[in-house]
Amino acid sequence: MFRSTPPITPPSGWWTKPWYIAFLAIVSVIPLLYPAVPPLIDLMGHMGRYRVELADPSSPLLTDYFSFRWALMGNLGVDLLIIPFAKIFGLELGIKLIVMMVPPLTITGLLLVAREVHGRLPATAGLVAPFAYCWPFQWGFINYVFAMALALNAFALWLWLARLNRIRLRAALFVPIGGLIWLAHGFAWGVLGLLAFAAEIVRMRDVEGRGTFEALWRGAFHCLPLAPPMLLMVLWRSGDVAGKTLDWFNWVAKYVYLISSLRGHWMDFDIRLVAVLMLMVMFGLTTIGWRQYRIDMRRTLGVATLVLIIAYVLMPRIVIGSAYADMRLAPYVIAIGVIGLVPRSTNRIALNMIAALALIIFGVRVYQTTERFAVFADFQEGQLAALDHVEHGSRVFALVNLPCLSRWESPRLEHLGAMAIVRREAFVNGQWTMPGAQLLSIKYAPAKGYAEDPTQVMRPRRCRAPRARSIESSVALFPRAAFDYLWLINTPADHWPANDPTLKMIWNGGELGALYRIVGSATIAMDTPKGTGTLATQ
């Protein structure tokens, strides 16, 4: 693998023209044009935090319900960017515009890296375009995917400056670039460091003719401009960060995350596409330096793929309290491998067919995502109609009826309740809390035990966590005195409370949603000091 082989520039074609990257980038925005709020799983929860961040100090959000304290940490990308965007466009449109930046930036980053490594885009490069809507993006890990899009474009710049032998200029530029990407998300900064290290190893071998061990230490030395954020990480981690790092080598989860890299709506299509791409990458890795095969892997990205594979294997599922750490990396491991592939054939018909097939696959992905996002957006706005009946600054206890996590397509409703914070400046349960790892904390004491994530999540008995409540038990036990409304989201009528004098329905969303005002008096054991007696509620 570390043996030098003469680089082969792919044949030119319509897929190597300057407009090709721009076309794919523009098309990738289409699914996000219609929804007022992009239907990404965690996004609306983050939007609740942004509303608190941007709130006037006199708002009940800050005086009564939440605390927001800025801290230097590697997870601030959109939290910082939304400040100017919200001033210009408002919070909801500002978030939509930021989210719309992620798919095209992801595509430009991947394809610019491919063009820099190969000299021209190979006909297979377009196969990477569906990763613009990879599972971490669909999940709404917005700081991470935004930072990864920046990191990929930064890696293309790193390679370009190396090709021009502008090493000193590169070192000067990447001190601030590395710091900014770390500030956006520390995981993305780590991936950029691994990619740069892999590229430097190959450059030391191929361009400077260094030995293997010398290439390793010199490669590490040239990556030192990316190292300053390590000092910030030490300071951050030595503070009051309470999150744990655990769940190592969970092979079942790692397998699921890999095959879920393009998880969307059509399970068979998603899995088969990922499986084909993974097989191509594996075949390409085994043929590095062997010219007799019909597909090759450019060694710069082949080594980078192997480095990312090692990182994926070694990375635990939970890092400093942040779940799905390895899942976030999985799609990018495959994507870097895909852009490293290059057909050795010079047959124009075959190459045109490969490039056309890549466009068709991406077109199917864009169509599928556009249609599903429209459906999700319409349903969500239908549920959000309940907020028209919620008073400004009030307190809402939200419960969301959800399927099991094993279901391939998520309904994207886990954090829909947070839109009460966004649109009504109301308190609602479901925000993430972790000292030192979140800027937002909950200070509304009366809701303790019924305030944070995942108190809003209700799943079927067969896949419910051992101590998780059902809808019925949550409705029966939540402290009436702490809330003004009960909001049932995506909840069938047979789970609605009946004959409860403390709850008055004020909005009926059809068969899958209801809003109740809390009235009268409660005789709930949870509401009384010793479990007996009556306590007046609002």
Q: Which descriptors apply to this entry?
A:
single chain; alpha/beta; two-stranded antiparallel ribbon; 18 helices; globular; disordered C terminus
Tell me what you see in this structure.
This protein has 538 residues and is an alpha/beta fold. Helix content is 49%, strand content 8%. It is built from 18 helices and 12 strands. The chain has helices at residues 18-27, 43-54, 60-65, 77-89, 91-118, 135-139, 142-163, 167-184, 186-206, 212-222, 229-237, 251-259, 267-286, 299-314, 325-340, 348-384, 419-424, 471-477, and strands spanning 66-68, 295-297, 341-343, 395-401, 427-428, 440-442, 457-458, 485-489, 503-508, 513-518, 521-522, 535-536. The strands form 4 sheets. Strands 4, 5, 7, 8, 9 and 10 form a 6-stranded mixed sheet that branches. Strand 4 (395-401), helix 17 and strand 5 (427-428) form a beta-alpha-beta unit. Helix 1 (18-27) packs antiparallel against helix 5, helix 7 (142-163) packs parallel to helix 9 (186-206) and helix 14 (299-314) packs antiparallel against helix 15. The longest helix is centred in the C-terminal third of the chain and has 37 residues, at 348-384. It is globular and about 80 Å long. The model is unreliable at 1-5 and 522-538 (pLDDT under 50).
